[in-house]
Structures are given as C-alpha cells and as structure tokens.
Amino acid sequence: MLNSVVSFFTELMRRFLPDPFVFAIGLTLLTMLLSYVVEGLAPIHILESWGEGFWSLLAFTTQMAVILVMGYVVATAPFVDRMLDKLVSRIKSPRAAVVVATVVGGVGCYLNWGFGLVIGGLVARKLAMSIKGVHYPLIIAAAYSGFTLYGFGFSATIPVLISTKGHQLQEQMGVISLSETIFSLPMMLTALIVLITMPILNAFLHPKNPDDIIEIDPACFVDKPHKSEAHHLLAENTFATRLNNSKILSGLIGVLGIAYLVMFVYKGGSFDLNKINFLLLFLGVLLLRTPAEYMSKLNEGVKTVSGIILQFPFYAGIIAIMHASGLVDTISAAFISISTTQTLPFWGVISSFIINFFAPSAGGHWAIQGPFMVEAARELSTSQAQTAMSVMLGNAWNDLIQPFWILPALAMSRLKLKDIMGYTVVIMLWVGAIYISSVLIWSYMSH
After folding, report:
1. Residue 222 binned pLDDT confidence (cut-offs 50, 70, 90)
2. What torsion, rounded to 10 degrees, do the Cα atoms 179, 148, 145, 394 define?
3. Which of 13, 239, 269, 351 is deepest in the core (most CB within 10 A)?
C-alpha cells in the first residue's frame, strides 16, 4: 500500500514538477495574478512592488547563504568527517542507512538548520557509497526530511525572534520566553515523536523490488583534476605559503572568535543569525586548522548555495507583492474568521503552510502574517506562544515540499527535484498529521 502511494507521487512529480527556479518564476506569476484578481491591485502597482521589493532581502539572503556555507565547512571538517566515517562503517543494511540519515539530518537541523542540511546530505551520500542496495533518491529525501525539526530547535526563527527584547511585535505580544515555545513540554514531546516515527516511516518507504532501486553513481562525484597557479604556490616553500598553512594563525583567530562569543553570552547576550554565523565561521577555522584548508572547503561550500542566491530575490519580490496587495491579509483573515480560542493554532498551522509556498523565509513569513495572528490571539484570548508556534510549525511542515530549501540537498547529491519530491510529499503528510494533532491537543488542554 505504502509503496503504491510513493509510486503515485513519484510519477506525478516526474511528469509535472519543474526545476526549483522554474517553480519560483511560476509562483511569481501566480502571485501577480492573484493580487490582480483577488485584491484588485492595478498591474502597474504590482510591477512596481515586485521590482522595488526584489532586492529588499539582500542582507538576509547573504545571511542565509553564509549560514549554509559555514555549515558546510564545519560539517566537512576532518574531525567531523572521521566521526561520520565511523558511524557509516557500523551500518550494514539499506533500511538502517535510511534511518541513520534521517536521524543525523534531524538532530543536525535541531542544533542548527544550516549545519543539519549539510551534514544530513553528506552522511546520506556516504551511506549510499558504502552500502549496496541503498535507494539513493530516498536516502537523500530522508536526510532532507530532518529539516522540519529545525522548527523546534535552537535556530527556529520565530520563537528565537519573539524571545528577543525589542522585536517588532513586542508591544502587541510582549517577549515570549523559549520555555513557552520550543522548550515547552508539548513541543519537546512533538519533536521527539517526529524524531522517532519519521525514520521508521522513511525506512518503510525503501523499495522492496530490487529493480526499483536506483543506486548512487560514484562517477558523478569524481571531479577532473585541475591545477591552478594557486595550487603550485601552495606547494612552494615560501614565506607566503607558510602563512597560508599556519596552524598558529588559524588557532589564534579561532580562539579569539570563540572567546568573544563566550564573553557575549556571559554578559547576557542572545544569539541571532549573525552570532550563529560568527560561531560557525570560527568553529570552522579551528576545525580546519589552517587558512588554506579553510579556504579550500569554503570554495566547495559556495557551490551548494548558488541556487539560493539566485532564487531568494524572486521570493523577496513575491513577499513584496503579497504585502502591497494585502493577499496575506486576505488569507489570514479567512482562516481567523472561522477560528475559536481552541482552534486558532490549528488554523495558524494551515494558513502558515499555504503562505510558506510564497514566503519560504520564516522571518519574512512572520513579518507579514505575524501581526494578524497576534491580534487574533489577543481578541480570542488564545496563548501568544501557541499561536506563534503554530505559524512556526506550518512553516517547518511546508518546508518538506518547498523546493527552495531542497536546493542544497540537490547540489550535494547531484539529483533533480523530481527525483526526491515524491518521497517528501509522503513524509509531509505524516508530519502534518503529527503537527496538527499536537497543536490541537495543546490548545484544548490549555483552555
């Protein structure tokens, strides 16, 4: 039964799902059309809002790219690589490999979504290389599925944002402690349930028929040797080369970076994206040991973010159109109008899931949906913490089938979107059932 469902969605994706960039273009045109038909915004204003908003998230785009590149550097450092090799050597069966890839990706994303996206993909590729009979598209999809756990973790954007003094909605909702959101008992139990059941589901998705299994092609990862002038310089015994390969320089600047963060936390500072990137950067410097080794890994990591750099401005343009036209207001209001004190978090998950197709950045997502959800929670006397988490969970749920965030996994695996999306759709259905059940139980028990 389960294999039939997977086959149905896989074939559906193969026939009709375009590449992520084409998907972004299609969403842009759809948003323009909806803004005109539903909201009545004049075409000239639609075009203006799109063009003016296209580069509005440039700083945030850079932060997203940096967190992925720095995550790649840390995840591929020799020490981490040796740990992954030891883990992989203990796994013997294809289904066990799928379970491990899911858990590593999930735990990694819980700690930091950029690190988790990379380390999940890397361990999945290692497992596919070393274990015969592993269905490669599935194990990559399984590793990526762990990304949904970032919504409960240390880098969950919305909970971290509203726990910070001075956030944009502080006057309306106050400062919400992390103990009320990601570290509340209901959310920690939900995360645990996902972490336990999702690897089991993914293992059952593995094809039973050997003819249906597509194994990894190692030849795809053999790069042609290329010696540049820089490589020759590194081989020379010059003063410059000794500096490039100096462990003392890397160790000194790495320790200084970590020392600053320790001092920052000791003084009561709270982490934001810049501080997370700061940590990943200097942790990577320490793990890679020399400036030359760090730059080599950094250059590799840059290849994984090219799609994000290209597509993020298109989603910024989409967000600008939705904001100018009031389309998000309409979507949110439609769900809020049928909400009660107990069901507002449920409709928050559903509306957030829909909006995340158009605004896959949780920060940008919250900026346009958050004010309506916060006001609705106040009017209905619903918990602000539960309401905020419902938006976060809807975002993390939709990310399972949001082509934008799958880009790093595709870059590392050399697969196409249509190869893995059939599996992530099935996983999305299961995770959605858990999230919806969780917010409903949490809400009804609280009221």
Report:
1. low
2. 140
3. 351
For residue 236, the model assigns a pLDDT of 63
Two structure tokens written together for 437: 């059940």
Residue 218, token pair as written in the block:
């190692």
Predicted TM-score of the model (pTM): 0.85
Phi-psi region of 382 (alpha: psi -120 to 50; beta: other; left: phi over 0): beta
Q: How many CA atoms lie less than 13 Å away from 207 in the CB half-sphere?
A: 19
- 29 Cα distance to chain centroid: 24
- Does position 427 have pLDDT exceeding 60, yes or no? yes
Tokens representing 439?
């917010």
| Rounded-to-integer distance, Cα 136 and Cα 212, Å | 11
Cβ neighbours around 226 below 10 Å, total: 6
Residue carrying structure tokens 């299994």 = 213
Residue 303: per-residue pLDDT: 80
Contact 405, 360 (CB under 8 A): yes
Instruction: Pull the structure tokens for residue 164.
Output: 């910070």
